[in-house]
């Protein structure tokens, strides 16, 4: 957002929303995540602000409004943020992918709302991490970290030990310029798998997890000519219990959907047009009309708007 704010749109449960309410953040916010950071059962917001190298934490009142931001330092040009409990103290911590400094910041939470000095995980020279996700990749009940490195054309895995520290990174080759990653179980083996959206090779890469922190080499699916896939998300979109994939293709202003077969393989992409000049930026998955079907909410950078796609079958 160029106006340095985060917008909150409260839903009515019938696919419509209240007008946005905005809350001030740092400069050039790039990514947002939610969680209960002070254990009051109310959702809070964390935002990665690229221009001033901070994250903003906005504590929620539980009524759709939020306190003024508190800020905490990160590495250079933070681009993506996620939340999880890395030291098993039942308090949510923050992890940030820092594009400019080629590293990851892990901010561990105090008893009161505050975060201790950050832990830095090096992603490698020229790695340019763009996206970060959290999951248990080796089934030890401890949270691990995965990155998409847009500069080195890899995903990177850091395994957590549940006590403030992480393994050295392990990398796997992707397509060209992976901009976004997501985690799900694509082959129903109760192990976390990864999908990456490769902006310059017009593909997505699938990595199946072995459950020990290691992954298969990539399987590649085309997103279409000149599609430039920028953002990826996952969910069961056709209620067949198999996880599917949706990508934002900024080059063609489309949503691309890959239906999963439940065995780690997927259909060819099906495209849904977003409209000329929409320049879609990201997609959020949720049931926005209470019909027990997953819908898509797409943020459009070109038109400063939110588009809704409701599942009808």
TrEMBL record:
Matching Pfam families: FG-GAP_3
The keyword Amino-acid biosynthesis belongs to this UniProt entry's keyword annotation: no
* Entry-linked InterPro entries: FG-GAP, Integrin_alpha_N
What keyword terms does UniProt attach to this protein? Signal
In which domain of life is the source organism classified? Eukaryota
Q: What is this protein called?
A: VCBS repeat-containing protein
**Source organism lineage?**
Eukaryota, Metazoa, Spiralia, Gnathifera, Rotifera
């Amino acid at each position: 957002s160029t106006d340095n704010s985060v917008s909150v749109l409260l839903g009515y449960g019938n696919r419509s929303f209240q007008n946005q309410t905005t809350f001030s953040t740092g400069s050039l916010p790039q990514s947002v995540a939610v969680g209960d950071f002070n254990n009051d059962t109310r959702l809070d917001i964390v935002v990665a602000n690229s221009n001033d190298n901070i994250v903003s934490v906005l504590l929620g009142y539980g009524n759709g409004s939020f306190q003024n931001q508190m800020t905490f330092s990160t590495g250079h040009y933070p681009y993506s943020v996620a939340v999880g409990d890395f030291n098993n103290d039942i308090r949510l911590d923050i992890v940030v992918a820092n594009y400019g400094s080629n590293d990851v910041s892990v901010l561990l939470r105090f008893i009161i709302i505050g975060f201790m000095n950050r832990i830095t995980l090096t992603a490698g020279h020229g790695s340019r991490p763009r996206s970060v996700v959290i999951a248990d990749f080796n089934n030890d009940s401890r949270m691990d970290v995965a990155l998409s490195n847009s500069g080195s054309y890899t995903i990177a895995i850091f395994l957590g030990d549940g006590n403030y520290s992480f393994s050295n990174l392990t990398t796997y080759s992707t397509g060209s310029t992976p901009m976004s990653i997501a985690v799900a179980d694509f082959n129903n083996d109760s192990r976390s798998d990864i999908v990456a959206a490769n902006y310059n090779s017009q593909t997505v890469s699938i990595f199946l997890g072995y459950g020990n922190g290691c992954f298969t080499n990539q399987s590649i699916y085309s997103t279409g000519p000149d599609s430039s896939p920028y953002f990826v998300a996952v969910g069961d979109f056709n209620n067949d219990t198999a996880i599917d994939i949706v990508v934002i293709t900024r080059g063609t202003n489309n949503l691309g959907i890959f239906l999963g077969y439940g065995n780690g393989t997927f259909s060819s992409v099906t495209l849904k047009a977003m409209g000329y000049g929409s320049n879609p930026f990201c997609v959020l998955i949720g049931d926005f009309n209470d019909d027990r079907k997953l819908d898509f909410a797409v943020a459009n950078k070109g038109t400063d708007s939110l588009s809704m796609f409701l599942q009808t079958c």
